[in-house]
Amino acid sequence: MNKTILIPAFILMVVLQLYIPVRMISYKESILTGGKEFKFRTAPIDPTDPFRGKYITLSFEANSFHVANAEEWNQGDPIFVMLGEDEKGFVKINSISKDQPVDDENYVKASIDYIVTDTMSYVTVEYPFTRFYMEESKAQGAQDVYRETARDTNQVAYALVSIKEGDAVIKDVMIDDVPISEVVKQLQEKPQ
Amino acid sequence: MKVRKEITELLNAGVITQETADRITQYYDSKTEPPSNKLVIVFGILGAILVSLGIILILAHNWDSLSRSVKTVIAFIPLLAGQAICGYTLLKKEESVTWREAGSAFLIFSVGACIGLLSQIYNVSGNLASYLFTWTLLCVPIIYVMRSSMASLLYIAGITWYACEIGYWGNSTHESYLYWGMLLLVLPYYYMLYRKRSEGNFFTFHNWFIPLSVVIVLGTVAKDVGDLMFIAYVSLFGLLYLIGNTPFIRDQKIRNNGYLMLGSLGTVGILLVLSFNFFWSDLIDKDFSEKNVFSSVEFLVSALLTLAALSLLIYQKMRQKPLEIKPAELIFLLFIGVFIIGLSSLLSVVLINLLVLGVGILTIREGARENHLGILNYGLLIVTALVICRFFDTDISFVLKGILFVGVGLGFFFANYWMMKKKRVT
């Protein structure tokens, strides 16, 4: 092929391949720096992603909302979750909606995980921030720490999430206000 | 090369002139890949893939001690290195297949490493499908800019994985339709390969990868009327078989003709599965009147594939003199008839068995006519497979089963003996 076409095409390709990741970074950074922080109480398990390494999967306590009419909601549909805080400062769901809220800024985009229709109908929310990546050597330790917290009711685990205009980025996962990586590190350094 | 030997012989015998000989040599030179050592290309690509995969694994460790900004910078290093290698290749080593293919393979994996790492740094929960989608699309330009067949093959593998992730393994969504658009993006390159390098190994790989990818992904369109997918698949295999017999690929060796082999093996495979009772006794009980069969996506896909195969069949037969019927050519049409009968009668089970037997016998005949031991034995294998399948049916007496086995065994023996003898005589 002619080099006069090939070289500009190559440059275009390079720019495109750099532009997409850079845009991703700037977008996530804007959420981290300009977003509002929320504390989501958690409980996790520990799988691996073949390309992105070890992570812990987080599930959240504030993940279901009572609805009057279950037929109105469909599994997998996108929803907007309006967030509030309980007396301890952890997230609770104020309401859910199919339409983007205009007057309320404290909301996050999510999807419907499943719907429970019993005597009371519930919509279970799947948040778009269920993964927290750990250093390989610490992922197992992190899981153990979590199990411990689940047993010990005095300890509190939560995810610190930054939210801006409905988009969210996890900042850290905390155990009793200490980052989980620190907790695992202390445990690993402690003589057995 | 074999051709060169022949040319020298023809030249010495005075059949062709020096000028004709030169022109023939030139023609074949333009069709084959440049005289680059194949082993070097293979190891170049393999090395590039291993190094880049190693980098992904090292980075996936997720170094806690590094700050977010340092990790972000590191994420771009392999990508920039890959781009630099490709840029250097374009400027200085454009004619080297090894450089182009190895550089492209490295760049593809470093694109994957970069977006994968960023997902890790920012804890993006996006599923594997959306990750594969971004990754494969960012790699499309590499195929054309670098004219890299390896990039194209990796791309086909990537979009197939993406479609499976969404269509088969995803939980609620079924929107794998984007796959078909993504597949179209690679076809211009495939056509270029056919025009310029139809003798090369990479063309052969494409002749396997593309039909195989389509065969794998077709099932993702199934929703409510899954039974119709059998028609879709039989028609797809019929279409592949017909494509395998077009001048575009007909003259390749059989093992290089992925269309023909997949078409034939797929057709026989499905027919064998359906030669059992269970599918048809299920089908007869099903009530299709409640579902909107004619507006279902399965019906649409089946109709489209059947029409495509039928058009190609008619086109081929109109140009063919004398008219000859290949073993598995008409199966897709006959199968639709059998399927319709199967909605109300169990006669279909018998008809399917006859179809398999027919394909087997026609294949044996083709093998005998073309003096091809491979095709002959393939035909015998089809018949054997049918007999083995019937072996599991309990309602046939042991004596009859025994006679069938002895018959097919003797068939193998005599057919091969006869063919060997015939070959020795000629």
Automatic annotation (TrEMBL), chain A:
Transmembrane segments: 6-22
Name of the molecule in the record: GDYXXLXY domain-containing protein
Keywords noted in UniProt: Membrane, Transmembrane, Transmembrane helix
Top-level taxonomic group: Bacteria
Listed InterPro entries: GDYXXLXY
UniProtKB/TrEMBL annotation, chain B:
Domain DUF2157, residue spans: 10-150
Top-level taxon of the source organism: Bacteria
TM segment ranges: 39-60, 72-91, 103-122, 153-171, 177-193, 205-222, 228-248, 260-279, 299-318, 330-363, 375-392, 399-419
One Pfam family named in its UniProt record: DUF2157
Keywords per UniProt: Membrane, Transmembrane, Transmembrane helix
The protein's name in its UniProt record: DUF2157 domain-containing protein
Organism: Candidatus Opimibacter skivensis
